[in-house]
Amino acid sequence: MSIHGKNFIGNKLSATSNKSSKIYDINSEDALDGDFYHATSDEVNTALQLANKAFIVYKQKTQKQRADFLDSIADEIMNLGDELIVRTMNESNLPRPRIEGERGRTIGQIKMFATLLRDGSWVEASIDTAMPERTPLARNDLRKMLRPLGVVSVFEASNFPLAFACAGGDTASALAAGCPVIVKAHSSHSGTSELIASAIIKAVKKCDMPSGTFSMVHGNGRSVGQQIVMDERVKAVGFTGSTQGGMNLFDIANKRKTPIPVFAEMGSINPCVFLPSSLKNTKKLASVYAFSITLGVGQFCTNPGLILAIKSSKLEEFKNDLAKEIINLKPAAMLSSGIQEAYETNKEEAIKQHGITVIAQALEENTIAQGRPLVASVNASEFMKNNKFQEEVFGPYSLLVECDDINELDKVVSCLDGQLTATVMGSNSEIAEHINLISNLENKCGRLLFNSVPTGVEVCHSMQHGGPFPASTDSRFTSVGTGAIKRFVRPVCFQDCPSKILPQELKDENSLNIFRLLNGEYTKNSI
Ligand code: NAP
């Protein structure tokens, strides 16, 4: 299938603009197949119109119909075969095993939402039956459940061209919730997005979903994405990427006549606290952490970008061991030349700060677009004076903060910004001794890990991927796992509603056999 570069406006392809862009191979600098036509304002408007109209029909589809649709999307993505893998590799510089793994993860999360819908209980159905005889006041029949918000705007992340992209977690959870989706394709992997969009549209047609259930538009001038978020027909936004981008869209959404939620997952430096007992085997610890810091060229939002420890001779040993690991690592190609340039600039800026010492930098010089790993250290007192140290350096970089004692370490934790994750390394007994410090750390993060590394985010019911600001714009929600669906629904209460028009989930007979809170008790019983 050759890449056409057109926008997917509902089920139709469209390319009316004379503005287009290309994607270049990071190493050879040759243009990859495809001119990507930036969506015009009219094309965006048509996509919005179709999505808004589709919502009325799509929200009435049963959970089973939406589950079949999601399964069909997963099947169509698999049907793209090796073409998808090769294109994604070319656009992201990520190796085949990683892309094949990411495709598996993407398919897995789409199917996970299909399973959630088939089970059906996630809608939090709650029924309080009428009590006409109650005195002094009778009680009405009240039935509540989660209902879809409306059109959702999704922005793709550069670092997960499949799993946090066109058919990634945001799209899958919004479609599962009953919301039409408009994706703004990422300008660094638009060909990958096109292939995925074509698979989704095939599923839309096969499952007889209305045109406009899904659209995807190109454009790298910010204006396309901003037009979508400003439009009153859009009811929520899903975003993963830079703090600047996320905050810009958040501000736009909040200045609208009707403000809407923006679920932006932005930066995180993922502090890791090394309690003294964790430094027994410094070689092993250094090897495990060097691996995590440089995994995927450090381009994970859960990268361990900050290590907090107490000064000691064992910490000196750890620094030496970490230096040996980092020096010998070979730099690898980053996602794009833009990301690589940002890494170099941010790294240079970080190591210019007062009090910082470079522990080690990979010896091999970086060639074009490669990220050269670096670890540095700073005293806790300097760290606490300068907020610059808390800025994410997106890439294979980590900063060790050296504290005089446990009290100073606790102070450092207190001044940390919100994070996606925080990690504690230490023996069980030492961890138990520092319960207040750990409680302090819990206040800062969405996921608290023990004796492990933060990279690796399981897609499951119990995952929390989202933390206090500025890690994300709303720490009550997750962008990974089944909980992600809750971002795109709102509770609606039906009072004395005729049974005929009640959603299936709230009807007396409970034909879906879901758990409901019936007069205060969880049950699958009918009424
Ligand atoms: P990004 O620049 O924030 O872009 C993400 C998406 O949002 C892109 O589609 C982009 O459009 C769009 N966008 C960004 N700013 C916008 C604005 N002001 N108005 C409208 N649309 C906007 O993120 P990225 O390209 O993935 O990576 C850039 C940097 O973000 C990295 O160097 C890294 O520092 C950080 N990052 C963080 C994470 C994380 O998980 N925390 C993940 C990836 C990247 P275009 O396609 O037109 O650019």
Characterize the structure shown.
The protein folds into 2 domains: 258 residues, Aldehyde Dehydrogenase, Chain A, domain 1 (3-Layer(aba) Sandwich), CATH 3.40.605.10; 180 residues, Aldehyde Dehydrogenase, Chain A, domain 2 (3-Layer(aba) Sandwich). The protein has a 7-stranded mixed beta sheet, with helices on both faces. Strands 21-6-5-22-23 form a 5-stranded mixed beta sheet, with no helix packed on it. The chain has a 5-stranded parallel beta sheet with strand order 9-8-7-10-11, with helices on both faces. The mean pLDDT is 96. 36% of the residues lie in helices and 19% in strands. The protein is built from 15 helices and 23 strands. With 527 residues, it is of the alpha/beta class. The radius of gyration is 25 Å and the shape is globular. The site of NADP nicotinamide-adenine-dinucleotide phosphate has 26 residues, from α7, α8 and α11.
Write the SSE topology.
Layout: E1 7-9, E2 12-14, E3 20-21, E4 36-37, H1 41-58, H2 63-79, H3 82-92, H4 96-119, E5 126-128, E6 142-148, E7 151-155, H5 169-177, E8 181-184, H6 190-206, E9 214-217, H7 223-230, E10 234-240, H8 243-255, E11 262-265, E12 271-274, H9 282-294, E13 306-310, H10 313-327, E14 332-333, H11 337-351, E15 357-361, E16 370-371, E17 374-379, H12 380-385, E18 397-403, H13 406-414, E19 419-425, H14 428-433, H15 435-442, E20 445-450, E21 489-495, E22 516-518, E23 521-523
Parallel strand pairs: 5-22, 7-8, 7-10, 8-9, 10-11, 12-13, 12-19, 13-18, 17-18, 19-20
Antiparallel strand pairs: 1-2, 3-4, 5-6, 6-21, 14-16, 15-17, 22-23
The chain binds NADP nicotinamide-adenine-dinucleotide phosphate (NAP).
